[in-house]
Recover the amino acids of this structure.
């Protein structure tokens, strides 16, 4: 049997047709979407299930974390705002992470969820991890950049958005 390059075009088993390379491009953002979705769901649930997190002071509290980064953040006024109501800010972050994670994982309003993820990551970068030296050791900047492709592309495959789009196309007679 001779070995060499395939010259045929194998069909897709996941829909959409095309070559393996075409499908790889279509599904390229799926691992990133799953990673970001699961990570943000975990982060939100971790905060919600850690009672000490919502206290204004004490070990592991949002208040202690904010006091610890206040003088080294890029925008101390953001930290001051959070310190006015640390529990409320903690709940906002936790529920925000949970909503972003769920939206991203199931692909429902994926671009909106990604913008939310970018905003959370940006706020954490400008406050909590701003002073990290060298900058590449702080993960919030990396998360901020990881959200960008999701904002641009959304969730075009294996998502609630794709399902809703196909239903709209079918109703309008385009599908």
């Amino acid at each position: 049997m001779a070995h060499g390059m395939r010259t045929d075009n194998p069909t897709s088993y996941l829909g959409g047709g095309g070559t393996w390379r075409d499908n790889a491009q279509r599904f390229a953002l799926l691992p990133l979407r799953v990673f970001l979705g699961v990570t943000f769901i975990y982060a939100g649930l971790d905060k919600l299930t850690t009672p000490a997190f919502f206290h204004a002071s004490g070990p592991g509290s949002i208040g202690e974390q904010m006091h610890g980064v206040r003088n080294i953040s890029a925008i101390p006024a953001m930290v001051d705002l959070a310190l006015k109501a640390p529990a409320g800010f903690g709940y906002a972050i936790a529920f925000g992470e949970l909503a972003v994670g769920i939206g991203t994982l199931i692909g429902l309003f994926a671009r909106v969820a990604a913008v939310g993820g970018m905003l959370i990551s940006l706020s954490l970068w400008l406050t909590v991890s701003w002073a990290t030296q060298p900058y590449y050791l702080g993960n919030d900047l990396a998360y901020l950049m990881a959200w960008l492709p999701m904002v641009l592309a959304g969730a075009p495959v294996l998502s609630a958005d794709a399902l809703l789009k196909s239903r709209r196309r079918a109703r309008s007679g385009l599908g």
In short: The mean pLDDT is 90. The chain has eight helices and no strands. Residues 5 and 145 are 36 Å apart (CA to CA). The radius of gyration is 21 Å.
